[in-house]
Design goal:
- By secondary structure, this protein is mostly helical.
- It has one domain.
- It contains four helices and four strands.
- It has a two-stranded antiparallel ribbon. A two-stranded antiparallel ribbon has the order 2-3.
- β2 and β3 form a beta hairpin.
- The longest helix is centred in the N-terminal third of the chain and has 15 residues.
- It is extended and about 40 Å long.
């Protein structure tokens, strides 16, 4: 079970995956379930899109969605609608 939860967390850490997560909940609830934020991939040290994200998105033939509406795992985890449940044995 813990491995499954870790896989879910890893899945949610990828930016476009969190958008899929958000979109699925929006469709299921027939409303905007989670709050959207403008995505930010700009590195603080040089005020440009981080090379990591340029490489990551180019592998999928996509442009970095800088400034586009989306979601982030940290923002999702802080949303009042998101609940965390853990089961320990």
């Amino acid at each position: 079970m813990m491995a499954f939860l870790l896989d879910i967390i890893t899945f949610l850490q990828i930016s476009f995956s969190t958008n899929i997560f958000r979109i699925n909940y929006n469709c299921a609830s027939n409303s905007k379930y989670f709050t959207q934020h403008n995505l930010n991939y700009i590195a603080a040290e040089n005020h440009a899109v981080s090379q990591y994200w340029l490489d990551f998105y180019s592998e999928y033939g996509l442009k970095v969605p800088q400034g586009q509406p989306g979601s982030h795992p940290n923002n999702l985890s802080l949303d009042d609608k998101f609940t965390y449940k853990a089961f320990l044995k």
